[in-house]
Design goal:
812 residues; mainly beta; Immunoglobulin-like; Maltoporin, Chain A; 5% helix
């Protein structure tokens, strides 16, 4: 650890030491219109080596910070335009350069056989979010969306697939600005089937503005998929094969066609995976009063999962006029998964002598079906950015899950001591979601913007868990385990937001969101019901101060809510073996948090963020047990209040013309205080997470990347986790005159992504170790094609909000 911290500290010092001055300017297109998203490249003379890359803002402005004294030129490029260059200029020891506006020229020649590519930095640090450009990382080839998240700055994924951001659980994951309405294992399973080749960017927002839903204790992760609006047609074909202990493969096809007022786009992808997982659990059952050991369980589960999934998307945009557009997007998702588990549990007395053994064979076949539709509208009201947008969505999820569990019982000598038993489970689930929203943006002046919007959603879930036991060859309904649960939820929301300049060096933003929640639950089997209604206000505030050309400060505050997941409210039972299962909790309440952040950016190279948050009634996974039946089960509960204090440092720099470095360090202290199993529990720990990516360029066609993450020991609710880390390397080669890209990566080279943890409180005494099929070698190839003419600036919006590139397009 001392070596790791020393190396990272040295790298940060190097970054700070070689940073110097700034270069800024504007880039315009036809009719002096800004070209939002144009790529600006800073080249060092005389060899024209690329030093830095930035994307232009919505008004065409760009800025390079941390520039060392030398002679440079700037180039600007965008799809549909010819690349242009500035005049050479000199950066001195104390110079701040403001360049003349760069005027892009339309490229009207045929695009057949020409592939337009641009380079973007891996990590972009913006005022209210961190942006990860997925394709900028060579090691993302063959990966899933969950793999990409796992190595993103500040993101952690635990052994059950739960996602946290900067040490806080309860993050909301969006796809193209739209809520997935999934959580926990269901969300993790979906993200595992989403290919990295389909992704464009990942936005990490720890304190989102008022236009976003207030849900998410730790903030929002927005996964943006790829789109293209070029006239004519264009697309790509990708495929990859991975080999770990078992094979994995994925293929995808993207196509876009634009002519006159119509734009058509589609995506089809397939994913195959065969995974392995070994889970070992040691449990000591203790007397609730005396804490003496009653028995010891040593359990080993060897699990395999094999599945296929298909994602499809079909959409159309109609541009009725320059200011008016309509759109529709249809998406579908189908997944089949077979899961098998061979489980052996040794049961010993307090002295460690084997008493008996249980051998369980558990299998399940799961089928996921999803259909979603989105209709959207956008009306531009003036040339300053005022607009009116509207979206309407319908989503349908259907799940079938058939389970079989067979338990056989043996004594210490391996002889059968009782008749084997069989449990059959049929767990269908259906989720229907209806949602509509409208947003209004008014540019009061060039520097002041007013926003307002309304949203309404209705969700209905139907979970019917049916269990049967096999007794002497007869199938008998198991009434104690079966349960039929219905849940309805209606959320109505409205918000206002005002942002703009407060002076020469000050900018501010103030927002207020109101959300009214109405939730009803009905357990048809037992007759238990609940009916909850509450209305809450969620303020947000941002204040930015630009001290000088080198230093800027941002302070923000937000209040947020985390509502219980639909699956967590469902009192279902999902078995690992006879003694271990997962159970829902219909008594869960929402949790509320207050989050404050203060960040400082130095020369655009080093960004430091200090954060504090306080959460009441935090929802966390807890372990409970029944000593009489030797059963242990996991469920979500409102266990405590949480306090977190954290410090994060992010550095990004072109060390040389062939080496780019990104390093992220996050240290945070979590403390939980509350009642668990009628016992007061107080646990806390300081955790440090490290993410690093080093990218290397060799000539015009070869690139390489070495990335790693490491997380020290920490605490997640009442579970203490041990250190975990991973190293990944990859190479990339451009082929076929830039149309093709060949990539080779090795993930988790040293096979160190192994989860270890323990939970000890009250009469709970458990430890676990988990090994997954994480070391995988991938080879992938992408081919891009295009044909057509570009005779105007492509329309970038698809009927969604200004700050979201593609809300209308989601995959669920």
């Amino acid at each position: 650890m001392n070596r790791i911290f020393g190396s990272l500290a040295a790298l940060i010092v190097i970054h700070c030491g070689i940073a110097a001055q700034s270069v800024s300017g504007y880039v315009k297109g036809d009719n002096t219109r800004a070209v939002h998203g144009a790529t600006l490249t800073l080249h060092r003379l005389p060899d024209s080596a690329a030093v830095k890359f930035v994307a232009a803002a919505s008004n065409g402005q760009y800025q390079f910070e941390g520039i060392t004294p030398a002679r440079y030129i700037v180039s600007a490029s965008a799809v549909g335009f010819q690349r242009v260059f500035s005049q050479p200029f000199e950066v001195g020891e104390a110079a701040t350069i403001s360049l003349p506006t760069l005027q892009l020229v339309l490229n009207v020649r045929s695009m057949e056989g020409v592939t337009v590519t641009s380079k973007r930095p891996l990590v972009e640090q913006k005022v209210d979010r961190t942006v990860i450009n997925v394709e900028a990382s060579v090691t993302n080839v063959g990966s899933s969306a969950l793999d990409v998240l796992e190595k993103s700055p500040g993101v952690a994924v635990d052994k059950d697939g739960n996602i946290s951001l900067k040490g806080k659980a309860g993050v909301i994951v969006l796809i193209d600005g739209r809520t997935t309405h999934l959580a926990g294992n269901q969300l993790a399973d979906y993200l595992r089937t989403l290919n990295a080749s389909q992704l464009d960017q990942i936005e990490l927002m720890t304190n989102p503005p008022a236009r976003y839903d207030a849900a998410g204790n730790s903030g929002i992760i927005n996964i943006k998929t790829k789109k293209n609006r070029q006239l004519g047609y264009n697309g790509s074909i990708s495929g990859s094969y991975g080999q770990g202990r078992y094979p994995k493969a994925n293929e995808s096809f993207n196509f876009n066609y634009r002519k006159n007022k119509f734009n058509l786009f589609s995506t089809v992808s397939h994913n195959y995976y065969h995974n392995y997982n070994r889970l070992a659990i040691q449990r000591r059952f203790r007397d609730r009063n005396t804490k003496e050991i009653l028995s010891v369980f040593d359990q080993v589960s060897n699990m395999q999962a094999e599945g296929n999934s298909v994602n499809t998307k079909l959409g159309m945009d109609y541009f009725a006029s320059r200011n008016t557009s309509f759109g529709i997007v249809l998406t579908g998702y189908l997944s089949n998964r077979d899961h098998g588990n061979l489980n052996i549990t040794d049961i010993s007395d307090p002295a460690g002598a084997l008493v008996n053994q249980t051998r369980a064979a558990t299998g399940s076949r799961q089928t996921w079906k999803n259909f979603s539709s989105n209709f959207n509208f956008r009306q531009a009201l003036d040339s300053l950015g005022s607009e009116l947008t509207a979206d309407a969505d319908f989503l349908l999820y259907g799940t079938k899950n058939n389970q079989t569990m067979i338990n056989a019982y043996y004594n210490e000598n391996g002889n059968t001591i009782r008749k084997a038993d069989t449990l059959l489970g049929n767990l269908p689930q259906q989720i229907r979601i209806y949602s509509a929203k409208s947003d209004f943006v008014k540019a009061i002046s060039k520097d002041v913007r007013f926003e307002a919007g309304v949203k309404a959603s209705y969700v209905k879930t139907d979970n019917n868990a049916q269990y049967d036991s096999i007794t002497y060859g007869q199938q008998v309904p198991d009434r104690n385990r079966s349960n039929h649960f219905l849940y309805e939820e209606n959320i109505n929301a409205a918000y206002v937001n005002l942002s703009g300049s407060l002076g020469k060096k000050w900018n501010g933003q103030l927002g207020l969101r109101l959300e009214n929640t109405n939730a009803r639950g009905n357990q048809l089997t037992s007759g238990q019901k609940f009916d909850r209604h509450y209305t809450q206000l969620f303020p947000t505030a941002y204040l930015q101060y630009k001290a000088d050309e080198k230093n800027s400060f941002v302070m923000n505050y937000g209040r947020r809510i985390r509502r219980p997941d639909y699956q967590s409210l469902n009192p279902f039972i999902n078995f690992l073996d006879r003694y271990t299962y997962q159970q829902g909790n219909p008594d869960l309440r929402p949790q509320f948090s207050h989050n404050i952040e203060l960040s400082h950016s130095h020369r655009g190279v080093v960004t430091t963020t200090l954060n504090y948050s306080r959460t009441n009634d935090i929802i966390q996974q807890v372990i409970e047990q029944n000593e009489d039946r030797n059963e242990t089960y996991v469920k979500q509960a409102n266990i405590a209040r949480q306090r977190q204090l954290g410090l994060a440092v992010n550095t990004s720099l072109a060390v040389t013309k062939w080496w780019k470095s990104n390093v992220f360090i996050n240290a945070f202290n979590n403390r939980f205080d509350g009642m668990v199993n009628d016992t007061f529990v107080s646990v806390g720990a300081t955790t440090v997470t490290l993410n690093g990516s080093q990218q290397f360029s060799f000539g015009k066609s070869w690139t390489a990347e070495l990335s790693a993450f490491y997380r020290t020991a920490g605490v997640e609710g009442v579970i203490r986790s041990r250190p975990v880390g991973m190293v990944t390397a990859g190479f990339s080669r451009q082929l076929m005159k830039g149309k093709g890209t060949l990539r080779l990566t090795v993930r988790d080279i040293f096979y160190t992504q192994r989860f270890r943890g323990s939970s000890r409180y009250s009469n709970i005494d458990a430890a676990f170790q988990e090994n997954r099929d994480s070391r995988v070698m991938n080879i992938g190839f992408t081919y891009r094609f295009s044909k057509g003419k570009i005779n105007g600036t492509p329309k970038r919006r698809t009927g969604s909000a200004v700050d979201e590139q593609s809300r209308i397009s989601g995959q669920n």
